[in-house]
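Troubleshooting: if your tokenizer reports a length mismatch, compare against these two reference records.
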Amino acid sequence: MIVSAESQKIHKNHSKVRIETYSSMTVRKSSIPLFLIPYIGALLLFSVILNFIEVLWVKSEPYYNIEQIMLPDEQSVIPEESRLLKASAPVYKPADVSGDRQARGVRISEYKLREGDRFSIIAGKYNISLDTIISANNLNGDSKAHAGMIIRIPDKSGIFHKVAKNDTLTSIADRYGIEVTDLEDANNLISTVIRVGQSLFIPGAALPAETLNRVIGGRFVIPTEGTVKNNYGSYLDPVTGLKYYNYGIDIVNRKGTAVYAAGNGIVGNTSYNAYYGRVVQLNHSGSMQTLYSCLDRIIVQPGETVERGDLIGYMGDSGFRAGEHLQFSIFKNKEDVDTLEFIF
């Protein structure tokens, strides 16, 4: 085949262009080893799946009202023979200290509140009356526990009395129904002379009911003694991996620990169901309800009127959840609320 000189010239020019083009290309090496790419892809896919599951989990949140929790189809009033006589020992009211000379006097320490602490929780923790905490810290209806707050903690139950004009040790002792010697010992007095404005500790004394009600207001108190765990809301069981929803707080103590009414109210229901065990529901003013679950014994009946501090039952381990404890929940208009937000 005969190729013209012009054709040869064009072919050479094209070859030159191709050679120059190839020489100008730069080969770049990947910064990620090729064998890691499948693993990275698998991690990304796993992350997407987890996010999808979380979305479904949140959407299926089991929010029930108090009537659904009580599970009407399982309700059964506790048989009368299993009830106990109603005890008279109220919670957060001072014990009888007659005969106790309080020889060392009252000692006061300071405590800095932590997140989740409440005044009634601290009273139970230090085994003193709530009246004592209120009086020692001049708490009023506007007082609210918050992290970092420092409060005074007397080492025994009682209240403080500010000496007024014409007060004497005898008149003060008579007013509170104690012996003068108890008053002297509690305050380490070496003389019967007292001055106006002086603060005296009255061992075993309680605040007037109207004062206590005015300070606490519409809030509730912790209904029993024990370690408080704020488990309100959704959580995954670390053992089973299953999802649960806690309608309140758990108070852990021994089976048989007394459980009291957290506020004045009427017993709305007493029941038993497989999950919550023995349950007491109290109805309060302001469309509020309290629920006491996992009880061992119930000693109140539906329709009965109770006051804050009245004994309603005993802590147990009934129901699905294992362990000796009380699950305490607060509802407003039959819908669950964050329990600690309503506790004094």
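Reference record two:
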Amino acid sequence: MIKKYLKNLCVSIIVCIFASSALADFEGQTIQIYTRFHAFVGNPTWLLVIRDLDSDQNLPYMFDIVRGDNFWVIFVPSRNYLISASRLQISSYQSRTNTFKNIRVNDFCNLESNGRIIKGESLYITIDGELRPNRDAYNCNVSSYPSTNFSIAKPSLNER
């Protein structure tokens, strides 16, 4: 268990280092999502829609959950945003009736802002347990922290 945690911590540090060098002028927030599902039913897909208030754009993110341990990073390009949708859809095949069944969980992990503007905060979300339509089977922990921008300044040759 500790080895997995250390491995995921190293991966997240590497992602942040590469992301910060690739996005040298990025001045926004991040949403980090880490899942530790013991089991899940069918083919779950998670839609997360971020409303960027500074540029007046909707940013959709779709995550296919194919294994228990996942780590995703969302770069929100503004300081002010809303989470306008967080929907989980679980598709499964019913062999007895030879049909597909789709179950939707709206406001997955209670992430939707419902009009509350998130100002200058980044989020760290941890989800663990069994991913099932029953909300009691999984736990969502959401932490927010003030974001220090990922701005990286290159020193000029005149400064020493």
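Descriptive notes for reference record two:
- DSSP finds one helix and nine strands in the chain.
- Residues 37 and 68 are 4 Å apart (CA to CA).
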